[in-house]
Amino acid sequence: MTNETAVQNRGILRRTYDWLMNWMQTPYGVWVLFGVAVAESSFFPIPPDVFLMALCISLPKKSFRFAAICAVGSVLGGAIGYGLGLGFMDTLGSKIIALYGLADKYEIVQHLYQKYDALAVGAAGFTPLPYKLFTITAGAFKINFATFMVVSLVSRSARFFLVAAFIYKFGAPVRTFIERYFNLLTILFLILLVLGYLLIKLVL
Q: What is the model's pTM?
């Protein structure tokens, strides 16, 4: 990808973001959030977190409702991504992965699935890892679909409800904090979950 193409792509993304954010100010904002959550899990580049924050800040009392809508949309999108990998990996699936420069990560994800099975989806669903890479490859590697859906629901819900909880508790001023430190917070939270799991396993 040339520098000129990269600049053009960033311009397109910015215009798309601005256009969607304008829709967030309308009565259709919830549907925009749902649509972005569905699309981002399978092919769309902009994460739904920013739109979730916008709605939560505008109506803090409905923060958890917005988080639930976002989680359901994201899991549905994950199922679509799974289907793309399962039935169309050689055509659509591989093109989507290549579009985001993730083709070189394919074998790494394959190794993660071989070692951790659907738990790898949980890490991707909660942390800043590219979720669409994991949903598409989950289908390609034929990860158990029921397990995939359960892990996706838990991890995506945890991610979005964390955002909602921060805004519900602290209001608009916390947005800057979330945008700056959210990736670090999710990684630290995931480490605590893993340590807790290992501790329980050792005790039992």
A: 0.77
